[in-house]
Amino acid sequence: MFEEPEWAEEAPAPAARPPPIPRAGVKSAPRAKGFSRKQLQATLQALQAAALPYPLPNQEGNDSNSDSDVGEEKRKKRKKTPKVAPFMEENSKLPVQRVKIKKGESKGSGTPKNSDLVSVLPQKDPALMSTTHRPVEDRNTTEPRLSRKQWRNRQKNKRRQKNKFLPLKPQSVAAPEQETAPELTEECESTLEAKESRSSLDRGGMLRAKMKLRLEGARFRFLNEQLYSVTSSAASHIFQEDPEAFELYHRGFQNQIKRWPLKPVDQIVKDLKQQPASLVVADFGCGDCHLASSVRNTVHCFDLAALDPRVTVCDMAQVPLKDESVDIAVFCLSLMGTNLSDFLKEANRVLKPGGLLKIAEVASRFVDMRSFLGALAQLGFKLVSKDLTNSYFYLLNFHKTGPPKAQGPLPGLTLRPCLYKRR
């Protein structure tokens, strides 16, 4: 039905293609590092610029900004950072919520809306409202940050230093009725002058009194050494020629007693109070009659000088008493002088048979206690009790057994003299 057109001819057979000629391979130029990333960023900026009415800021790593420009911008941002107040630092530990960014916005696509922001601090916090704000400290200074207590103490010290040099406040002016009369003021002036003169005199008087005490102490030491190194008759002669010497010696002795931890006369008084009050006592070397004032017994007081009306002035080797007329004989720190045997023989004479002899002496004076007790046995005394517990004083008690057996000197009856160091 259909006839082929005239132009239709049979297609010629495809000629055989020659083999491809090998060419030198031309390699494509290598792409720059980061080219695809930059191209994507440029495309993203173009799209965002078309969508927003204002231009976008340059992204980091853009070709227009070099590394030096980025460094300068960072330094400017550091300088422009506002200083934070101290109370903001205190509340920096509060929990902070991060701001969510919408999908269509990037980090550098401008500031988000106010509705998207969450406040960092509560708007009305009573703790923050009540706190007192101190002045903002400069962080660039090297001084350490002060605590609140240290800051308050520093302010107090500043006020005190400031008020230290202020003039004193004037006292309240008295009413005209209360004003002092001229006669009274003159009297006050005269009293003030008298007080000033008295104070100057007191200074001189104190110096004189101190020198007088030193002189009296030196004289007391001299008299004390004399009493230990001479006989009782010679000592009595010294005090007869100078009656004031005994008073001076007694004052020095009382000052010395105040330093002692124990007074032997008090122990003797305690022992005599346990004896019957009817016993008669003879106190050899009584001093100020302390023993007679402390007991109810009849006490005969003997000494080289009288400081009390009850004292009988005599040599203790010859007392005005009858034979065997005394129940108790006491030598309390009075065995002084070189004729100790005469004192003890006189005590044996006045004591009744079986009478009590009490001796209290300084512990350092005893050379040999055994020889001393043997000598007293030769003088007619037997040891009853002894108290050697105290390191300062020894207390010895004897009973009269009979008259003295030995008439001559006894070598064991020796006591060291109490001598003072040379000053």
Low-confidence region ranges: 59-66, 84-97, 104-112, 114-122, 171-184
Mean pLDDT: 74
Largest sheet: 7 strands, mixed
DSSP strand count: 7
Structural class: alpha/beta
| Binned strand content | 5-15%
Number of helices: 12
CATH homology superfamily name of the domain at 263-400: Vaccinia Virus protein VP39
Give the CATH level 1 class of the domain at 263-400.
Alpha Beta
The share of residues in helices is: 25-40%
What is the name of the CATH topology of the domain at 263-400? Rossmann fold
The main sheet orders its strands as 3-2-1-4-5-7-6
Give the second-level CATH assignment, the architecture of the domain at 263-400.
3-Layer(aba) Sandwich
Q: Give me the strand/helix succession.
A: HHHHHHHHHEHEEEHEHEE
Shape: elongated
Rg over CA atoms, rounded to whole Å, is: 61 Å
Span of the ends, CA to CA:
174 Å
Family: Belongs to the methyltransferase superfamily. RRP8 family.
Subunit structure: Component of the eNoSC complex, composed of SIRT1, SUV39H1 and RRP8.
Protein name: Ribosomal RNA-processing protein 8
InterPro entries: RRP8, RRP8_N, SAM-dependent_MTases_sf
